[in-house]
Specification:
The protein is 18% helix and 35% strand. The protein has 302 residues and is an alpha+beta fold. Among the domains are: 107 residues, Immunoglobulins (Immunoglobulin-like); 96 residues, Immunoglobulin-like (Sandwich), CATH 2.60.40. The strands form 5 sheets. It has a 6-stranded mixed beta sheet, with no helix packed on it. Strands 13, 15, 16, 19, 20 and 21 form a 6-stranded mixed beta sheet that branches. Strands 12-14-18-17 form a 4-stranded antiparallel beta sheet, with no helix packed on it.
Length: 302
C-alpha cells in the first residue's frame, strides 16, 4: 500500500513537472520600474520555460491606451530607435531614457512548438525628471503688520516638486512653532504649491529669500531676492494729506476768483453806461426829411 502511494506521488510529480516544459512562461523582476531621465534602464522579460528554439519576441509601448511597436521583426522601431536594444533572450535595454518614455511596456513571446504557445507580461515605466530653476516672486518692500505672500513654482519636474524656503541662507521650518528662533513668526508654507504666506509682517522678517524645488531626481533653486520690511510713516502720511488738502483749497479759490471776474465783466458789457450806438458817418443826414425830400450836406459832392 505504501509502495503504491509512493509510485502515485512520483507519477503526479512527473506530470506536474513536465507540463510547464510544454508551454512558454514569462516573468519579470519588477513590474513597476523607475528611471532617471538621461540614464539607462533595463526592462526584464525572463523566459522561465519554453521548448521552441526560435520564439517570436515582441515589445510594445502603450500610452493613453494606444499600443505601438518598440521591438518588431528582430529590430528596434518607433521613438526608441537608436536608443534601445534587445538583451538576450528578451530583455529591453533603453540606453538614454527621456520623459516621453513614461508608459507601459508589454513583452510578448510566441512559441509555436509549445503546448502553451503564447505568454505576455506588462511592465510600467516612470521616468523621473529633475526640477528646473523655479520662478520666484518676492516683494521688494512690505509694511509692518500687513499680510504678504512669496511664490515659487516650476512645472518640469516629475514626480511633482516639493518646495522649501530659505531666509538668510537658513531653511524655514515647516511649522514655525517647532523652532525657538521662528516661534513668533506668522508664516505658513505650502510645500505642494510653493507659497510662503505671512499673516502679519515683522521687522525680523526682512532679509534675503530663495526657494528650492526638489524631487527624487534632484533639486533646483531660484536666485536670492531681498525683501525689506518698514514701519508705517504716520508723520509722512499726515504731511502728504495736508499738502493735498492745501493744493485742493488753492485750486478751488482760483476757480471761484476766475468765475466771479467773468461774471462782473459780462454785466458791464450789457447794462453799464458805456454802451455806445454805432456812429453814422456816411455823409447823409437821416434826421431831417421835410417837404418830402432830403438835403445834402455840404460835404456831398456831385
Amino acid at each position: 500500500m505504501a509502495l503504491q502511494r509512493l509510485m502515485s506521488f512520483f507519477i503526479l510529480y512527473s506530470i506536474l513537472g513536465y507540463i510547464p516544459s510544454l508551454g512558454v512562461i514569462l516573468r519579470t523582476t519588477d513590474k513597476t520600474v523607475w528611471a532617471n531621465e538621461f540614464e539607462p534602464i533595463e526592462l526584464t522579460c525572463l523566459i522561465e520555460s519554453i521548448s521552441t528554439n526560435n520564439p517570436r519576441i515582441e515589445w510594445k509601448k502603450i500610452q493613453n491606451g494606444v499600443p505601438s511597436y518598440v521591438y518588431f521583426q528582430n529590430q528596434i522601431s518607433g521613438d526608441l530607435e537608436h536608443r534601445a536594444q534587445l538583451i538576450q533572450p528578451a530583455n529591453l535595454l533603453i540606453l538614454n531614457t527621456s520623459r516621453a518614455d513614461t508608459a507601459e511596456y508589454r513583452c510578448e513571446v510566441a512559441a509555436i512548438d509549445d503546448h502553451k504557445h503564447f505568454d505576455e507580461i506588462l511592465i510600467s515605466l516612470a521616468v523621473r525628471v529633475k526640477p528646473v530653476v523655479p520662478r520666484c516672486s518676492v516683494p521688494v518692500a512690505v509694511t509692518v503688520g500687513t499680510s504678504s505672500e512669496l511664490r515659487c513654482l516650476e512645472n518640469e519636474g516629475f514626480p511633482a516638486s516639493q518646495y522649501r524656503w530659505f531666509h538668510n541662507n537658513e531653511e524655514l521650518p515647516q511649522d514655525p512653532k517647532s523652532s525657538p528662533k521662528f516661534i513668533n513668526s506668522t508664516y505658513s508654507i505650502n510645500a505642494d504649491t510653493g507659497g510662503l504666506k505671512f499673516r502679519r509682517m515683522r521687522k525680523e522678517d526682512a532679509g534675503e529669500y530663495y526657494c528650492q524645488a526638489k524631487n527624487v531626481a534632484g533639486h533646483a533653486q531660484c536666485p536670492t531676492q531681498l525683501m525689506d520690511v518698514y514701519d508705517v510713516d504716520i508723520v509722512g502720511i499726515f504731511l502728504k494729506v495736508l499738502a493735498a488738502l492745501a493744493g485742493l483749497i488753492v485750486v478751488m479759490v482760483g476757480v471761484c476768483h476766475v468765475y466771479k471776474h467773468h461774471c462782473f465783466s459780462s454785466g458791464k458789457d450789457h447794462t453799464g453806461t458805456n454802451y455806445k450806438l454805432p456812429s453814422q458817418d456816411d455823409g447823409v443826414d437821416y434826421a431831417e426829411a421835410d417837404e418830402g425830400h432830403f438835403r445834402h450836406k455840404s460835404s456831398f459832392i456831385i
